[in-house]
Automatic annotation (TrEMBL):
The lineage of its organism: Bacteria, Bacillati, Bacillota, Bacilli, Bacillales. Its main location: membrane. It is a multi-pass membrane protein. The chain crosses the membrane at residues 21-43, 49-71, 98-126, 132-151, 163-180, 200-223, 235-261, 281-302, 314-338, 350-371, 391-409, 429-448. It is found in: Membrane. It comes from the Bacteria. PANTHER family: PURINE-CYTOSINE PERMEASE FCY2-RELATED (PTHR31806). Belongs to the purine-cytosine permease (2.A.39) family. This is Allantoin permease. Keywords: Membrane, Transmembrane, Transmembrane helix, Transport. The keyword S-adenosyl-L-methionine does not apply. Gene3D superfamilies: Hydantoin permease. Pfam families: Transp_cyt_pur.
Length: 454
């Protein structure tokens, strides 16, 4: 494996990171209060307390996918969608790359919406009336906070994420401790078991789509800066555990809160709904903490989105790149805040549709790495857009197979898959079907062709 191309691989001089840094990056990226909403969403599938906790554990453990894909960045020193060119071909990689970029900016927009609603609630505490003008001001303030992060490099990013991990992580758990006693344990423990296939699996799939699968596209973007002398096991553990701890605990509190804040899932402003369950003296600190928890997620999304834009060979200046993402961060939230009344409906729809394409890509990329690249490595010539193979049909076919299967088992306001019936109706199980289909096809095609043909 060659590692001499600085335009493809991260220069060795910049690869000084340690696994501990990855722990802080992914811990900070998962302390957002939105995890509470995910926890309540699990209970919304009519599950018992034990089933809900199990779904939260499995859902949070999906970050093992991010942890494993981070190993590819450690070994090669390349970002995610640069390495993805090997599995799909330089041109074949364009559409998955574009889908990854859309997912990142979509998540960015979702978090900006949440941050704007949180700022609105904070301003409301100080007596400012809720109005469209205040909404626009809140949106502008939050977007400016995020754009400021684009000025920082990798080393500063690690320092910022470490700060957020300690400060806002501690504040978040302090608030969660205050919320726990409000749980109606009698109601919670009396909930009967839901259907394991019809409710439990769909609950897991929506969480997996919004956590491990969604963030898999950014895995190598950060591990590529790791010193290659570090072990793959430590990188895997740092990413997986760093994300699992806050994500599971915060979703767990969401499960508990589902009894004391029954309208949490249906609320147009779930952050404010949580704030109303707190003592008045705690609300200001809560809203500040909620904003602080959202910023790290936005930083990760924005950085990886800009990396993906470059991987698409869209070479624009720094000011232009910032302007493009700023426009997206403003226009999508404006639609959600002013024209769409159901925040979580849009949230779930977004996760479900994009999740199918991302799950298929993740399976194809991961098994291509397992079966071939893990031993053969990544050759710079293969990843260069001028010298690399234009189309790798193995990766393309396996990816398309996953997408087709996923949509066949999915229904939405835009289409209805012919097999989206029974347990597949109104669920996100199509995401898991897409992942499984792409994985199986990748393995089959690998067995049918020699390594030279791949």
């Amino acid at each position: 494996m060659s590692n001499s191309r600085s335009d493809i691989f991260i220069p060795n001089a910049e690869r000084t990171g340690s696994p501990k840094e990855l722990f802080f990056i992914w811990f900070a990226g998962n302390i957002g209060i939105l995890g509470v909403v995910m926890g309540a969403l699990i209970v919304g599938y009519k599950l018992s307390f034990i089933q809900s906790i199990m779904a939260a554990v499995i859902g949070a453990l999906s970050f093992g996918l991010v942890g494993y894909l981070s190993i590819s960045g450690l070994k090669a020193g390349g970002t995610t969608f640069v390495l993805s060119r090997a599995a799909f071909g330089v041109k074949g990689n364009y559409i998955p790359n574009l889908l990854g970029w859309l997912s990142l900016v979509g998540w960015l927009a979702v978090n900006v919406v949440t941050g704007t609603l949180t700022l609105m609630s904070l301003f409301g505490i100080f007596g400012l009336g809720q109005s469209g003008v205040l909404m626009v001001i809140s949106l502008a303030v939050f977007v400016l906070l995020i754009l400021a992060s684009s000025l920082f490099g990798q080393n500063m990013l690690v320092k910022i994420q470490t700060f957020f991990t300690y400060v806002f992580g501690a504040l978040t758990f302090l608030i969660l401790i205050i919320l726990i006693p409000k749980t109606d344990w009698t109601a919670l423990l009396s909930m009967s078991n839901g259907d394991w296939l019809g409710s439990f699996l769909p609950a897991i799939s929506i969480i997996v789509a919004g956590t491990g699968i969604s963030w898999s596209i950014a895995a190598a973007d950060y591990s590529a800066y790791q010193n290659p002398v570090h072990s793959a096991k430590k990188v895997f553990a740092s990413v997986t555990v760093g994300a699992f701890i806050p994500l599971f605990l915060i979703m767990g509190v969401g499960i508990l809160l589902s009894t004391s804040v029954p309208d949490l899932v249906s609320s147009s402003n779930p952050i404010e709904a949580i704030g109303q369950a707190l003592p008045k003296w705690m609300t200001v600190l809560y809203f500040i903490t909620a904003i602080g928890g959202l910023i790290p997620q936005c930083i990760i999304s924005l950085k990886s989105a800009r990396v993906n834009l470059e991987t698409l060979n869209i070479r624009v200046g720094n000011a232009t790149a910032i302007s493009i993402h700023a426009l997206i961060m403003i226009l999508i939230p404006i639609y959600v805040l002013f024209f769409s009344e159901d925040f979580l409906w849009n949230f779930q729809l977004f996760l479900g549709i994009l999740g199918i394409g991302l799950a298929s890509w993740a399976a194809s990329f991961m098994f291509d790495y397992i079966l071939l690249r893990r031993k053969a490595g990544y050759d710079a010539a293969l990843l260069d857009h001028t010298t690399g193979k234009s189309l790798n049909y193995n990766g393309i076919f396996s990816w398309l197979a996953g997408i087709i299967v996923g949509f066949l088992f999915t229904n939405s306001p835009f289409f209805n898959g012919p097999f989206a019936k029974g347990i597949f109706k109104d669920s996100s199980l199509g995401v898991l079907m897409a992942f499984a289909a792409s994985a199986i096809v990748t393995i089959i095609l690998y067995q049918l062709k020699s390594k030279e043909e791949i």
